[in-house]
From TrEMBL:
Pathway, per record: Carbohydrate metabolism; pentose and glucuronate interconversion
Lineage: Bacteria, Pseudomonadati, Pseudomonadota, Alphaproteobacteria, Rhodobacterales
GO biological process, one term: D-glucuronate catabolic process
Record keyword Iron present: yes
Molecular function per GO: ferrous iron binding; manganese ion binding; mannonate dehydratase activity
Family: Belongs to the mannonate dehydratase family.
Cofactor(s) named in the record: Fe(2+); Mn(2+)
Organism: Sulfitobacter pontiacus
Name of the molecule in the record: Mannonate dehydratase
Domain of life: Bacteria
Amino acid sequence: MKETWRWFGPTDPVTLTHIKQAGASGIVTALHDYAPGEVWPLRDITALQARIEEAGLSWDVCESIWMPDAIKLKGAGATAEIAAWIETMRNLARAGVKTICYNFMPLLDWTRTDLRFEIEGQGQALRFDMVDFVVFDVHILARPNAQADHAPDLLAAAQMRWGHMTKPEIAALEANIIAGLPGSAKGFTRADLLAGIESFASLSHRDLQANLAAFLSVVVPEAEALGVRLAIHPDDPPFPLFGLPRCVSTAQDLAFIHDAVPSAANGLTFCTGSLGARADNDLPDMARRFGAHIHFAHLRNVQREGDGSFHEAAALGGSTDMIAVLAALRAAEQGQPARAIPMRPDHGHLLAFEQQQKTNPGYSYLGRLKGLAELRGALAALDHSDTGAKHARQVQ
Ligand SMILES: O=C(O)C(=O)C[C@H](O)[C@H](O)CO
Ligand SMILES: [Fe+2]
C-alpha cells in the first residue's frame, strides 16, 4: 500500500516537511477554497501540485471534490452541478491526479459530538455520543417530530441529561455537531440546518440511491475515458442523522453502488473507521468482497460503545480487526490488476503538546504519525509472514 497523508493546504499546521518526516510519500488534498459546484481551474490545481512536488511528495488522491446537495436532491436533474463536477475531474486528470474521493451524505459531512474525549491516560479522541446527539436533535435543535426517530430509552436518557446541562456545555455540543469538521464543505446555523433538513424531507433512502446512480451513470463514462478512479467515501457515522437518508453505510449499499454502474472507475474509499462504527458491518469480509473496487483506504479504528456511540481508538485497537482488514487489502492489491492502493491514517488522537496547539480536529500530527507507524509495522509483519509462508511452501 502507498502511504499517503491528508494535508489541508498551506494553512495546515502540519507542513509538507512534517509529512515527509512521517514517512508518507503521497498527499491527499483538495482546493478547499472553492465552494461546492465551482470548477477548479487547472492553473490552481497545478500550482498546488507544484508546492507538493517541491517538497518531494506527489499529489496522489483528491479528497474531495465537493458534492453539491442539489445532486443528492435531484440526481441527473442537477445538470449544471454535474457538468461542473466533471470539469473539475477533467482538470485534475489533466494534472495527473486520477484518484478522486467524494461522499454523498446529505447536508452534514462527518459528525461528532465531542472533539476532546479523554481516553484514560492515552490522550484525547473524537467521539460520537448517541445520547448527546439525541439531546441536540430533540431539545436544542428541536427538530419537528425528532422523537419519532429515537428509541424510548435514548429519549429518556437525553431528557435526563438535558436537565443537567450548563449553557457552555450546550454551546459546545452545538458547535461540535454543526460547525463543520475539517474536510466539510461548510458549517450551519441552527436555522439553516432546519431549513436544509426540510429540503430533504421527502427524500427516502431509495431516492438517494437513485440520485447517486443517476450521477454515476453520467460521470463514470467520463471517468473511464480519463483513466480516473472514483472512490466514494462511506457515511460517517454510517446511519441516518436528523431523519436524513444515507446510502453508503452497509455492504448492501456498496453492492447497490457497484451494480448500478459496473465499472473499475466506479470505486470505493474503504474507510474502516466509518464502516466500523456499525456492528453489523463485517469489515474483513467487505474488504474481500469489494477489494477489486477499492481505490483508496482510510485506516483508523473506532471503539463501539453499544448504544450507537463510538470513539476513535488506536489503529490496532478498537472494535475492528485491522490485521484481518490489512490482509484483505493486501490480497486485493495482488488481484487483477495488481496495484498499490493508496492509504492514509485517518483521524488521530490528540497527544502531548499538541493538546495546547491549534490542530484540525482529528487531523493531529502525533496521533496520525502513531497510527501510520503502527499500520506500517503491521503491514511489514504481514508481508514477512506471507514471505515466510511462501518460503515454507517452496521449501516443502
Ligand atoms: O469521516 C471520515 O472518515 C473522513 O475521512 C472524513 C472525510 O474528510 C470526509 O468525510 C470524506 O472525505
Ligand atoms: Fe474516512
